[in-house]
Amino acid sequence: MIKLALSDMDNTIVPMGARGISERMREAIHAATEAGVLFGPATGRDTVELFRFFRADETCYKTGVLSNGKRVLADGETVSLTLIPHEGLVAIADALRDREMFLNCYPTESNLLNPAYAVGVPSEEMMNRYEARLGFVGGCMDEVPKIDFVAATIACPGEAEPMEQQMADVERIVEEVAPDLRVVLPIPGWFDIMPKGVSKASGLDALLAATGFAEDEVVVFGDAANDLEILRKVKYSVAVANATDEVKEAAGYHIGACADDAVADALLEIARAAKCGEMPEFLRG
Questions:
Q1: On the chain, which terminus has fewer CB atoms closer than 10 Å, C or N?
Q2: Distance from C-alpha of 10 to C-alpha of 7, rounded to nearest angstrom
Q3: What percentage of the chain has pLDDT greater than the value 90?
Q4: What single DSSP character describes residue 99?
């Protein structure tokens, strides 16, 4: 029986550009929790952004794998926290100067007014574009502040450059100046920076240790490259219809699209099945 449901955010339960989850999604999360199934995000986003995307409903994100596994919450308590080394972020910021890219750093302790620091932004137009597209608020800085950061991303528009080449360029830069770090791609032009060995999959290990659940009691929903490791780890891995081809191939099960609230439908079925002591229909066979 499913006891824990984890879902990616962007393009899995929140369409790109939307301000937050739908009311139907919120109702589905509550239906699952009332049926005894824990729900949580498995996302590259951190707590302040989740406050906004879940419309201040803490029930939706008090448990979860945040910041791509660098912060793990169980019933509101932090059970695992991995920071990004400051020297690595400084090296990356320096390497991006004079390029059409910039570094975003997310403080471990933040607030609604300034959840991110945008370092070395090439132009105001680029900053405005990313804020509108991704729904984040960034304070422009010349240097990486001397505080703790739990997440960081590289923004790279690269309209004229093929995505494969853009990925190779960003990977090369990070490998050259910060070899203990790596990048994963959740959406085009937005590269999450990760300490090597940390991922949503390693975050799941910490969450399972805290909750006592087994891997075969977990269902995970995803759509993009930063979901691959956790999807490959669990038996009940689910791709939304708008997922990348690689994610569709990695997932054991498939549902409708993010835009159609397919994960909400799946959660409602999980809630129904939990009350009956059985597996959800879409996970049978």
A1: C
A2: 10
A3: 75
A4: S
What the block records as the tokens of 15 is 């369409």
**Strand pairing report for 71-74 and 64-66:** antiparallel
The pLDDT, as a whole number, for residue 230 is 98
Cite the residue boundaries of each domain of the chain with CATH code 3.40.50.1000: 4-82+198-283
CB-based contacts of 179: which residues, under 8 Å, 6+ apart?
none
Rounded to 5, what percent of the chain is helix, strand, coil? Answer: 40, 25, 35
Nearest C-alpha neighbor of 185 from the set 19, 8, 48:
8
Tens of pLDDT, residues 172-201: 999 999 999 999 988 888 899 999 999 999
Whether the pTM exceeds 0.70: the reply is yes
Give the CATH number of domain 86-195.
3.30.1240.10
Considering the domain 4-82+198-283 in this protein, what is its CATH number?
A: 3.40.50.1000
C-alpha closest to that of 223 among 205, 206, 241: 241
Phi then psi for residue 157, to 5 deg, are: -65, -55
C-alpha angle 53/247/57, rounded to 5°? 15
Q: How many of the other CB atoms lie within 10 Å of CB of 126? A: 17
Q: How far is CA 100 from CA 53, 103, 140, 191, in A?
A: 28, 11, 15, 14
Q: Which residue has the tokens 């999980």?
A: 270
Distance (Å, whole) CA 228 – CA 30 = 27
Contacts of 36 (CB under 8 A, 6+ apart): 3, 274
The more confident residue out of 144 and 101 is 144
Residue with tokens 């471990």: 108
